[in-house]
Fold this protein.
Amino acid sequence: MKTLSTLGCWLLISSMAWAAEPNVSITPDVVYGHKDGLAMTFDVFTPKENANGAAVLFMVSGGWYSGWSDPQQSWPMFAPLTSKGFTVFAIRHGSSPRYGIPDAVADVRRSVRYIRMHAEQFHIDPQRMGVYGMSAGGHLSLMLGTAADEGLPNDKDPVMKVSDRVQAVVAFVAPTDLTIAVREAPNRLPAYDRFPALDLAMAPAKNHSPLFQVTADDAPTLLIVGVKDDLVPIEHSHRIQAAFNEQKVVNKLVEYPNSGHGLVPMEMQQAVSEMVTWFQTHLAEQN
């Protein structure tokens, strides 16, 4: 579930579409927590003009691996959003193989709490936060959309007392049911052997599957899929859309017929446009 080809495609498209100099202020390596003595960080991309006050969090995750890249080089990837006034946060989590899926979910949930707690510092509206990601990043985005809470009032850590709810989700080619991908699943695809994060028992796999977390108060969600995807088959998105519809959660599914797990350039360009429109619609400032 690594999406290097998809990310590379998007970066290439963005690099061609936007000027050489970023029209954003970049704040690298903001520490939002610590794990085993290590800092967990994100980068912030703030529009230099016409900021709209809404935040969009990007889940830096493929196969639940999360790595660092130079924000001075990666900013074009976020230009379709920053050019429309969104402040973008590139969130890194504890990476596979050292850390598993429950760790990654806990980390990104903490990142939302931290950003909301420091909303004034980042010049954003804490009630207008969206999230998106691709493949494993899409899975983490859906977990934020379906399994959030209002904060843990009795926790000793002030960050954990803050809500981790988001107001809009976009999930590209996202796995929604981990119970069919872990090692004890009877019809597991052989390709999943490449992902140590899926070495997970069935009970925690279900607990960390967005499909089984859907409730009526979930965030509006856009699902983007490639019809030819043989790593995360389209049924993942069909099943969670049915669950959203049953709970009357606002959602949309966009299928791209020529794409697999990595969207082809033309369809990726269309998908990015769909994403921007989704966030503009669901993170708009309320009068």
